[in-house]
Design brief:
330 residues; mainly alpha
Length: 330
């Protein structure tokens, strides 16, 4: 490509971005998105999160591949969509979303600056939508950068074992998980009047999802087996559906079914019974679920339903939080 062609391509890209920005400015909430993004990316919290992402997800791969202290390239590629790396993402991404979002509305409401913002030509809906996308894009930027850097680290050693599909699925689903928890936390921030309450609400629900949800789903399965006449196969499917309603479980199982050609949907859903604390009983139920689903996977355990679960954890809390925020006396 000549210098003139490069300049023409660069100018075309700038014109395209400028045109898109001008069109988006027609949306009442778009200036709030830009302000929230700019304010958030300048914070020390985002800088610390970026350093944490690099330390947890890029440095171990570099050590594995280039120092001789770890495994081989195939193991590094597998780590992108399976094992400890995915479990870390399903923990770190929600915590990061909560840390960046819990004070988005309640903080301004507590300081009194929200009244100033609403004195400008913005409605409360504009504030909620603008802060939702502004905080999401601020979190998405270091996430995407880290995941792409992972690829750059792995690519020279991956050879034929590397698949572009793996990266696309990983980035897309991780962003969807981030959007779920940004939306959920923003709903809590909109519904409460202080940062302490919004943090307790969002953090408390996350702890429940992380530490207690599997116990609840197991309890539902046990109750159905002991108190109803349902057969074991249907009980297993219902228990799996309850597990799938957990957004982090939905994220992990989608990564397995969509990110790896070697894992079927049935195997991915059955793996939700797997747990480092589950012991032999979890392994037995996982094998039984895989056998039960091998013939057909019911629609309520399908990939589209898992995606809807992730989107629902964003949309429903935002709608509820906005409803409370719209009626609140500031």
């Amino acid at each position: 490509m000549s210098d003139r062609q490069a300049d023409s391509a660069g100018q075309f890209a700038l014109n395209l971005l400028s045109g898109a920005d001008d069109k988006l400015h027609g949306l009442d909430w778009y200036p709030i998105v830009k302000k929230e993004f700019a304010d958030t990316v300048r914070t020390r919290a985002l800088l610390l999160l970026t350093g944490l992402f690099l330390t947890l997800f890029v440095l171990p791969l570099a050590i594995t591949l280039y120092t001789g202290l770890g495994g081989d390239a195939a193991a590094a590629v597998t780590a992108l969509v399976q094992g400890l790396a995915v479990r870390l993402l399903s923990v770190i991404v929600p915590i990061s979303a909560i840390a960046l979002t819990y004070a988005a509305i309640s903080g301004e409401r507590q300081r009194g600056s929200l009244k100033i913002l609403l004195s400008l030509p913005y409605t409360r809906r504009d504030v909620v939508v603008g802060k939702l996308f502004g905080r999401f894009f601020a979190l998405a930027a270091p996430l995407v950068g880290t995941l792409l850097l992972q690829v750059l680290v792995v690519l020279p050693e991956a050879e034929s074992g590397f698949q572009a599909r793996t990266v696309v699925v990983l980035i897309g689903l991780t962003l969807l998980l981030a959007l779920s928890f940004v939306g959920f936390t923003l709903g809590a921030s909109a519904a409460t009047s202080t940062t302490r309450r919004s943090l307790i609400t969002a953090g408390g629900v996350w702890v429940y999802l992380f530490a207690l949800w599997n116990s609840v789903s197991s309890g539902v399965g046990g109750l159905l087996r002991d108190r109803t006449g349902l057969d074991e196969e249907l009980t297993l499917k219902i228990e799996l559906f309850v597990k799938l309603l957990n957004p982090t479980q939905a994220y992990q199982t989608l990564l397995q079914s969509l990110g790896s050609a070697d894992v079927t949907v049935a195997q991915a859903r059955a793996s939700m019974f797997g747990s480092i604390f589950g012991g032999q009983s979890s392994l037995i139920r996982q094998q039984a679920a895989a056998q039960t689903l091998s013939e057909s996977v019911p629609w309520y355990l399908s990939d589209p339903v898992a995606v809807v679960v992730l989107l629902g954890w964003c949309v429903v809390p935002v709608v509820i939080g906005y409803g409370l925020f719209a009626r609140a006396d500031l």
